[in-house]
Amino acid sequence: MGLPRSSPFSSMAVLVFVLGLVLNAAVLCNGGITSTFVRKVEKTVDMPLDSDVFRVPPGYNAPQQVHITQGDHEGKAVIVSWVTVDEPGSSKVLYWSEHGKQKKQAKGKVLTYKFYNYTSGYIHHTRITNLKFNTKYYYVVGIGHTERKFWFTTPPEVGPDVPYTFGLIGDLGQSFDSNRTLTHYELNPQKGKTVLFVGDLSYADNYPNHDNVRWDTWGRFVERSVAYQPWIWTAGNHEIDFAPEIGETKPFKPYTSRYHVPYKASGSTAPFWYSIKRASAYIIVLASYSAYGKYTPQYKWLEEELPKVNRSETPWLIVLMHSPWYNSYNYHYMEGESMRVMYEPWFVKYKVDVVFAGHVHAYERSERVSNIAYNVVNGICTPVKDQSAPVYITIGDGGNLEGLATNMSYPQPGYSAYREASFGHAILDIKNRTHAYYSWHRNQDGYAVEADSLWFFNRYWHQIDDSTK
Ligand SMILES: *[C@@H]1O[C@H](CO)[C@@H](O)[C@H](O)[C@H]1NC(C)=O
Ligand SMILES: *[C@@H]1O[C@H](CO)[C@@H](O)[C@H](O)[C@H]1NC(C)=O
Ligand SMILES: *[C@@H]1O[C@H](CO)[C@@H](O)[C@H](O)[C@H]1NC(C)=O
Ligand SMILES: *[C@@H]1O[C@H](CO)[C@@H](O)[C@H](O)[C@H]1NC(C)=O
Ligand SMILES: *[C@@H]1O[C@H](CO)[C@@H](O)[C@H](O)[C@H]1NC(C)=O
Ligand SMILES: [Fe+2]
């Protein structure tokens, strides 16, 4: 600018620029770590129907498959869901705070659905509202017949420096390995308070006629966690249950009947994409299996949603989706590509901190990279280091019956920082507006062992390089 073309200054600048490109390319040509951890690869099999974890609670019309999720945008409401099998019974929830004397009641709704020759039990969904922040509540379901009592703790009031601990689980299923993953999550000394679940719940669709009995067993299996802390749901491909060969042509029927989410509170028009605030985090759930192209409802919602995120209120911007955008396994390779093309420029513009996905049954963490320069004719189609970009984490290693994804592409691409084919879960421990500690825990280790870990620096408040190489 203003300098003659031949000035030593400008050639210097060009040299620095070229050197920068070379260095950048060098950085991105060498991948990160492919773990050398060796485990015994056994067949992953589902727990049989008579397993302890699937036991039906005793008593006439006893509520089963009890689960909770956040019920509003801020964290002052909870949706309580459960199933009764003998008769509809009551959809009322009785609840009271730990130190409060007054018991309150919330009314809900009951529904049933049919899937081929399966008829569901009575599925209840009841929203409890106007809860106090940071308070332990007890709640009772099954009023009138067999009552069962549970409890949960509401999150602290939304604010920029509020610490909070999330668990990350994906592609769980109901195998013996799924049970190990859940046990490791429960016994991890860094106690997760809410699970961010990245899709693929029961894998009932792997059974003949999508045997929906396996949706019920899954509900009973995970009750021991999800009745006591909210799981934030993302829809995966195993939730689609599209089976025209047996006359089932309405996608997501079992999933949407059983799992309700507070999508209307964030202005969404469908339960597959929505957002919540929780403590210092703003969580956006996206739908890999709903239309996301330009002009679609999800696109329009996300376009209006991202500018609403106030990082002075919720510094941590987290996105959940099922199909990963950055993946170096030879499974589901590039399945997330068309959604990446649509939304990645926004993720960089709005400085998303981290994206969690599942789908690939293994673990992988990316560098902060973006790949948004390509315009069909310019040939610029390689991911580059980008400090405004999120870290992408694939955590589809819950342990479902389909087994581990072990086949990786070589050499490890530059965007891949760490990858390992083991089952496990992760913890995201937000400390304040600048720092969050992240760790991944494989099932073969002791409960406290961290197989991969790093400090995340917030992209809005502390945008300094937090890469691990
Ligand atoms: C549904 O049909 C399958 C085979 O078509 C059969 O094995 C199963 O027992 C049936 N289930 C019910 C609840 O009728
Ligand atoms: C599942 O894990 C729990 C907790 O570790 C254990 O009590 C139970 O026996 C396990 N069940 C099966 C079928 O593995
Ligand atoms: C963002 O949040 C801060 C802190 O809660 C608040 O003071 C500010 O008014 C908010 N900004 C907007 C544009 O709402
Ligand atoms: C791994 O994936 C590659 C690419 O899809 C394929 O060519 C190769 O046969 C696979 N290897 C194994 C052992 O399955
Ligand atoms: C935020 O948390 C990190 C990690 O615990 C700590 O080092 C840092 O001092 C904290 N920042 C503030 C302003 O307290
Ligand atoms: Fe999947």
From TrEMBL:
Q: What is the residue range of the signal peptide feature?
A: 1-29
Instruction: Report domain Purple acid phosphatase N-terminal positions.
Output: 63-154
Q: Name one GO molecular function term.
A: acid phosphatase activity
| A Pfam family annotated for this UniProt entry | Metallophos_C
What residue stretches are annotated with the Purple acid phosphatase C-terminal domain?
389-448
Which chemical reaction does it catalyze? a phosphate monoester + H2O = an alcohol + phosphate
Give UniProt keywords alphabetically: Glycoprotein, Hydrolase, Iron, Metal-binding, Signal, Zinc
Q: Where is the Calcineurin-like phosphoesterase domain?
A: 165-363
Required co-factors: Zn(2+); Fe cation
In the UniProt record, does the keyword Membrane occur?
A: no
Q: What Enzyme Commission number does this protein have? A: 3.1.3.2
- Similarity annotation: Belongs to the metallophosphoesterase superfamily. Purple acid phosphatase family.
Protein name (database record): Purple acid phosphatase
